[in-house]
Design goal:
274 residues, alpha/beta, Rossmann fold, 8-stranded mixed sheet, 8 strands, globular, binds zinc ion
């Protein structure tokens, strides 16, 4: 086993060496990390320092979908101290959501999902600005919804909306963190516009039935990977899950990954400059 101190030291060095990826605009004078935050985030400050924490605080992340994947990513991005989180969902909570959408509880049935998220997330970390968008993501609304986003988490359950998000993310050069679940299986990848394969390069035609089987723990595994990618991207540490599709097979408890490449003929990113 690798000694813990060694790992921490390596992480800090890695944070410094990769900080050029700076990711979210860190120009301007961010306020220093205050005393309460030094205590709240003490364990992660050991990994990426106050500079990383300030970057998290300045970031605006849109989570598209307040369901199973959205629940998990929203929790971990909130406790990590992302400054602003936009939750986009126009649906209401139903009893059949509760096996996987862990931010919705019995008392929330009938409420707007996005509002149920705000209720829980604001109690987890009152410093995070959680905003709600209950408009449906469509051709005519998507640009406005993503207006101020630095990053987009795909927590949708259908490919039609995912392709729309992918397209706008590419046009605006917004990093896009894809996750999908089905039954005991999940898949996840990170898309950096103009640099990596996009969703359409990987899945030229994606289909997902409207009602599909899934257990909550699958959302947990995939959502945690998405949240880890988002945090790494913002603070500028480690290597990202780009040009790789990670497949989680929960039935056999295996992870596999496949190399994916940009398709020069891709209808969505083929003519995008690197
Ligand atoms: Zn593409």
């Amino acid at each position: 086993m690798i000694p813990r101190n060694f790992m921490v030291k390596n992480c800090v060095e890695s944070a410094m060496s990769t900080s050029r990826r700076g990711r979210v605009d860190d120009s301007g004078d961010a306020a220093p990390v205050g005393e309460p935050d030094l205590r709240r985030y003490a364990r992660q400050l050991k990994l990426f320092g106050e500079e990383g924490q300030k970057r998290l605080k300045k970031a605006t992340v849109t989570i598209a979908g307040a369901g199973g994947l959205g629940s998990v990513t929203a929790v971990y991005l909130t406790v990590a101290g992302v400054g602003r989180i936009q939750i986009v969902d126009d649906d209401v909570v139903e009893l059949s959501n509760l096996n996987r959408q862990i931010l919705h509880w019995e008392k929330d049935i009938g409420k707007k999902k996005a509002e149920s998220f705000v209720d829980k997330l604001s109690q987890m970390n009152s410093e995070v600005d959680v905003v709600v968008t209950t408009r449906r993501i469509r051709e005519d609304t998507v640009a406005g919804i993503l207006n101020d986003s630095d990053l987009i988490v795909d927590a949708m359950d259908n490919f039609q909306t995912r392709y729309l998000l992918n397209k706008v993310a590419l046009q605006r050069k917004i990093p896009f963190f894809y996750g999908g679940v089905y039954g005991f299986e999940g898949q996840v990848t990170t898309i950096i516009p103009g640099e990596t394969a996009c969703l359409r390069c990987i899945f030229p035609e994606g289909h997902q039935p409207e009602t599909f089987p899934v257990i909550g723990a699958t959302c947990g595994v995939i959502g945690c990977i998405q949240a880890t990618e988002v945090v790494k991207y913002i603070v500028g540490v480690g290597g990202l899950l780009t040009n790789r599709l990670l497949i989680w097979d929960g039935l056999d408890t295996r992870m596999e990954e496949f190399v994916v490449e940009r398709n020069p003929a891709c209808v969505d990113c083929g003519d995008l400059d690197s």
